[in-house]
Write the structure tokens for this entry.
Amino acid sequence: MLYDVERETMPRDELEELQLRKLKYLVEKVYYNVPFYSQKFKELGIKPEHIKSLKDLKYLPFTEKQDLRNNYPFGLFAVPKENVVRVHASSGTTGKATVVGYTKRDIQIWSELMARSFVAAGVTRGDVVHNAYGYGLFTGGLGVHYGAEMLGATIVPVSGGATKRQVMLMKDFGSTVLCCTSSYSLYLYETAIAQGIEVKELKLRLGIFGAEPWTEEMRLDIQKKFNIKALDIYGLSEILGPGVAIECETAQQGLHIWEDHFLVEIIDPSTGEQLPLGETGELVITTLTKDAQPLIRYRTRDITSIIPIPCKCGRTHYRIERLKGRSDDMLIIRGVNVFPSQIEAILLETEGLAPHYQIIVKRENALDILEVQVEIDEKLFSDEIKHLQRLENKLMRNIKEFLGVSAKVKLVEPRSIARSEGKAKRVIDLRKQN
Ligand code: DLL
């Protein structure tokens, strides 16, 4: 099923024509309405009329998270403030929050893109959508909410927290679709078991998980535990919120990025140069239809690649590979680059481990020390010490072999690692605290 057949299956040449038309309009709009962009364009000697083809995109300046912070709160608005009907903001743990504004038209488009994403995931009007993404300044809750309403499904706006109650509501309301972070779904699962609820007896058939990196191994684990199909949804508040890209139920591989609204590039994060189609690097997005706060070449810091191969679902919009993580989450351990998701993949391939882990990095005598704490399941917990030691050694060997870095692995008791109600905090980097 497709939500907008014409747009979603548009031949690529037509899609690119549409993108160019919108890009030209956008460049003009920000040049004349956003002082930050007028200044940047002037510094680079660029005028709107210089943009003649999509290839000229590379001459435009990047926008970075810091630019949003420097213009806090409303300095990047391209419309009068009275046209802005809503603001969202990121949590801002590392400085001032980044603020995003939306006009009525932005909310309309966002809702449509979320409805389109839901349909791609196989959600129908008959579904009951349990929405455990947080409501508030975070875009997850309201983004999913408006999209489900636009589609005509039944939305349960439960938000995050009160986990025991959530399980009961899912059961009583016969929820068929679960929307939350992958880590929170596992917390819901554990809570259900503790309450004596057999999760497979719920009516759930689909999970739409995003807002944090998760691996294929984690997907398989969640699918098995809940007996559902689990799909990956991507988005970021600076660009829209959830609904920028999603996996389709047909292929369940790679996330379709809605290219009639977003122009995507992959760049080398260290040089800023565009990379050829298919290569892995940092995702850069230009918003083609954002009204209140359009962004030119926004550096997402997310690492992925574009899959240019047509998808069997018939959509012509390119897919991006499952997000590997953020370049700022990449750990450099004694010179070796390691993504938390690579460690997750190794842990979850191993029998007897629970999908709850934490990575601790410290510095001792000028040397980086990587420690991985992972919970064992109840069965293994009662096992003999020597078995556990063998398992720890095996994990250390695998990490060394596959990632090229030595790590200390510590198996910990079931339920000893803190659970998250939103985005999981996987890494504690004590080096940054000194
Ligand atoms: O997390 C929006 C969202 C809500 C997406 C609900 C999906 C579902 P922010 O809080 O601004 O917005 O965080 C955006 O989260 O740059 C990625 O690093 C990460 N992220 C989001 N989705 C995924 C995903 C929302 N599917 C940042 N896989 C992004 C990996 C993801 N990382």
Summary: The two ends are 53 Å apart (CA to CA). The first strand starts at residue 84 and ends at 89.
